[in-house]
Write a structure and sequence with these properties.
CATH architecture of the largest domain in chain A: 2-Layer Sandwich
Oligomer: heterodimer
Number of strands of chain A: 12
Order of helices and strands of chain B: EEHHHHH
Helix content of chain B: 55-70%
Low-confidence stretches of chain B: none
Largest interface: A-B, 19 and 15 residues
Radius of gyration of chain B: 17 Å
Largest sheet of chain A: 7 strands, mixed
Order of helices and strands of chain A: EHHEEEHHEEHHHHHEHEEHHEEHHHHHE
Number of strands of chain B: 2
Mean pLDDT of chain B: 90
Largest sheet of chain B: 2 strands, antiparallel
Structural class of chain B: mainly alpha
Strand order of the largest sheet of chain A: 1-2-3-7-4-6-5
CATH superfamily of the largest domain in chain A: Metalloenzyme, LuxS/M16 peptidase-like
Low-confidence stretches of chain A: 1-39
Number of helices of chain A: 17
Helix content of chain A: 40-55%
Strand order of the largest sheet of chain B: 1-2
Radius of gyration of chain A: 23 Å
Distance between the termini of chain B: 22 Å
Shape of chain A: globular
Amino acid sequence: MTAGGPFMGPRRPVVTMVAATLAAITAITGPALSPARAQTPAPAIVREALPNGLVAPVRENPTAPVVAISLMVRMGALAETLATAGISNFVQIMLVRGTTSRTGKQIVEEVDRLGGSIDAYGDTDYGEITATALSRNWKPMLELVADIAQRSSMPEDTLGAVKNFLLLQVRNRSDRPFDAGLDRLLARLFGAHPYAWDPIGRRESLERLDRGTLFDCYRRHYRGGDLVLVVSGRVKAAEVMPEIRRLFAEIPGGWAAPFPVPDPPTAASGREEIRVEGAQAQIFMGVVGAAFSEADHAPLRVLATALGGGFTSRFFSELRDRQGLAYTTSAQYPMRVKPGPFYAFLGTAPANVERSEAALRDELERVRREPISQEELRVARAFVLGTLAMDRRTNARQAWHLASYELAGLGYDYLDRYSAQINEVTAADIQRVARRYLEKIRTVSVQPLD
Amino acid sequence: MSFTPLAGAGIVTLWATAEAPDLPAIEQAVLAEIRRIQEQGVTEEERAVAVTRAESQYAFDRETTEGLAFAYGIAELTWSLDAELRYIDSLRGVTREQIQEAARRWFPTTSYARIAFAPKKAAP
């Protein structure tokens, strides 16, 4: 990953009305439910880059007396190695356990007084501190987020408990058939590439992490050029922006050193079985897809939706409803900064494993062999855009989306372009990406212990 | 802890997840806290935080058009839209004395339903 570039430059406030996006949402979801809301002006977004590199879009949304804050940092599993797997999530969790001026208990009590919530976690491509509050309390909540982000104390007395909690989560994943199957598939697809492991990390790496290592990671990544701060809610950007400048001015400028990311192994077909306690069998078939900034992302997204994205998708209608093979089935294609996983999943009775696996494979081959129908294309495109709109109903999710695209260097208005790309996907595009990406498929079959 | 208002009477529920052997101690701690409120009431800070929390939940439940439509629908069905719109104001006016009285009237420490799901060997 190349650090920095897009976020640096002179301070430049930008005001943009995102009416185009809202028009698209209205077209999908129908008119707003109440006349009062129909007259509400489209939220305005004001964006500013601080001298230290931190980028701060503020979204004014007057519809409810609430506010959401997302401070996103460029770290996550993508910045880890096999030896440090899980360190981003560990660091993030420790941030809300105490600062140099607040204990963890005081943080919780203060959040209660503000009528809000606060959490921090590490994900695959990023870490996030996420907070909500009644909008009248936006200022103290922003101050709390700034304190947590800049003055973590990583309290030694809670570090052991957090580590044990994380190790328990790792163990639980290996006991759950779905998680165990997915983890094995990702390990085979990605090898030493960081997408091979869950952001929780690995037992071997977590056990070795100590306070000093966590502090080093924290200091390395919490730099202005690697941070995006989004505030969304019933606030005035003209009031919020000066507070952001004041509260986040002390964050060191620049970026963390670029972290080299190894390439995934060369694509290869393969099949393996694992056994985990449970009553149901799980079948995973996966490949490495495209990064979400690549042109193939939109057709792959529509392909995943046509295959396993809703009640009318092929997996659901053919494998579940018509053939009765699946309890659950879907196709997943999570948005990733680097080329990420594209996989099909099917849960079935152990007696049906062989037939289900063959049927799932047939569906993946059929979509390469012949184009999907125009009706399937229309439904799949509408489903992608509709679920995207539904996912952005709250300020917290709006803040997450804006921060994600800013951090990836695509700009907070990326969704406007993305929506257009989805609407332009053709049946021929889908067949093209199916032929390109679904050629060599890895299969993992999870079956109950005898 | 949650309170589900119904058209008739509501249900107050408290739940906890814990190691099975700790269940009796947790139950006693909850009862002791209820008795404390019945006898001593709550502090002004506790009252203010509780009102803010309730106000916050109310606001976030209605943040989306879906949430707002659900709230208005329930209001029309079980009480009134007017009462729904005045709910937050009435909440803000709740006094410490009213909280103490509610604890005495509605939270009997000798009459309540208790359900525990625990491993067979550890059931208290």
